[in-house]
From TrEMBL:
Superkingdom to which the source organism belongs: Bacteria
Lineage: Bacteria, Bacillati, Actinomycetota, Actinomycetes, Micromonosporales
Species this chain originates from: Dactylosporangium salmoneum
Protein's UniProt name: Uncharacterized protein
Amino acid sequence: MRAVLAAGASRRQVEDALAVCAAFNTTARLADAFGFELLSPEGFDAGAKYLLRRGYN
């Protein structure tokens, strides 16, 4: 933490990064616990096309 702050990151940036890490960690643990499976490459492509058609870029 001291090294990150000394490198120029603000306390708020560190807090935000920790919050993102916690959210992803929780999501991954829940996905594992409930046996979620990853999409196929075709599924990822379809999802990306859906988001791009709706202005997510």
